[in-house]
Amino acid sequence: MSLSDRLFQDMKAAMKEKKAGRTKLDVIRLARSAIQNKEIELGRKPSDEEVLDILAREVRMRKESLPAYEKSGRGELVAKLKEEIAILMGYLPEQLSEADIEKLVREVIAQIGASGPRDLGRVMKETIPKVRGRAEGKTVNQVARRLLDEIQT
Q: In which band, very low, low, confident or very high, does the pLDDT at 104 lie, cut at 50, 70 and 90?
């Protein structure tokens, strides 16, 4: 079953739950809407990999909003956002730990023969497809920068 099909099935189940599944229903509807927008943009159904990118972007947008709500003391919105993030994370593959990301980046650095920070672009180009949906690009970038800085010094 494709990820889009799974979202559709879960949406139907959440509709049957009435009040209990309201947040889940809202989150799935928003995610499906983003997927449909991508389908219109592409002129075809998005692949599971593209759907993963869409869901990861939805999670990232919510995580970026959290600090602003926490700072303004909007506890109810913080709780709602955390619940939405948890729902969306259920559709993403298990997230890699920083140690796993570091191991993967070290392999890529050795594979392409990177010699310092100026090779960051090449390292990222090779690493990002390997971690798609399992790690945020920002985290991968930070690890790659740190490791490339270590090589230079």
A: very high
Judge whether residue 20 has pLDDT over 70.
Answer: no
Residues 9, 75: one domain? yes
CATH of the domain at 49: 1.10.1510.10
Using H for helix, E for strand and C for coil, what is the string for the chain?
CCHHHHHHHHHHHHHHCHHHHHHHHHHHHHHHHHHHHHHHHHCCCCCHHHHHHHHHHHHHHHHHHHHHHHHCCCHHHHHHHHHHHHHHHCCCCCCCCHHHHHHHHHHHHHHHCCCCHHHHHHHHHHHHHHHCCCCCHHHHHHHHHHHHHHHHC
State the chain's mean pLDDT as an integer: 88
What pLDDT does residue 21 have? Answer: 62
The reply to whether 85 and 105 lie within a common domain is no
